[in-house]
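Task card 7
Instruction: Convert sequence to structure tokens.
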Amino acid sequence: MSEHLRTALTLAANGVPPLPLRAGKVPFGNCPPCAKNACGGRPNMKTPGPCLCPYPCHGWAAATTDPNVINSTPWVRAWWEAAGVAYHPGGASLTVVDLDNAEAIAWARASLPATRIVSTNRGEHWLYRGVMQSANAVRPGVDIKSLMQYARWLGPGVGVMAVLPDTVRALTVKDPSTALRAPQALSAPLGGRRGECPHRTPTYLDRGIAMAEQRITEAREAVHATVYRTFLAVLSTHGRCGCLTETHATRLFTAAQVKGESPRHCTDAWTNALTTLGLSHVR
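Output:
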């Protein structure tokens, strides 16, 4: 058994979906039947796991925790040829802040909460618990790798992994746009009161939003219904307590749109949830 295969099976057993990397830190190319996505790929290229073909095709989406796939003959051949191991952070409910140089690392130390750190050839990977949209060059020397992206496996790292902070999520938010704005003007808290949630702590709210994002992200069917039910659950808990802001709503909208929901459907689902709960008067 190759070292890469052994590493991959260990990762998979711990819920981290691996995939083999060729020299140059790139995934193996699609096999002939899948060339140029002729096979249709996976559903909208948003779902990881094995293709109908037996090869590790489709880049990040090839990542899987199925030991039967990882140990299959075509994959074993790939592991022997591989120059390294990668993994799908989003598939493990993780986000990697990829820091490429000393300046980026200095920024992270000054701006982000401490978390688990993995050393790289040029910098560091900061790992957080939670998922978000991936994006490159969110600031000089900084990439975000989570959903629909892969990261090199360079070891478990050191330190205690923290919950994904809003500071990192905000890095992918561009100038205000219709696509990712909540349907209400939530620049102030949603509801009449301000400050901490009266019945829970701010940590409870952040954990609740993270769980809601995960619920949407992990939906494999009935995505429309899942988005609506998730919005309804969040609003029923925090819609009146004065702690839910536009930042939180935008996180939920982003998770839904990564799953393929349109901005219009997100707006409708949010508005319908407000109406159901008698909160449609809130601005």
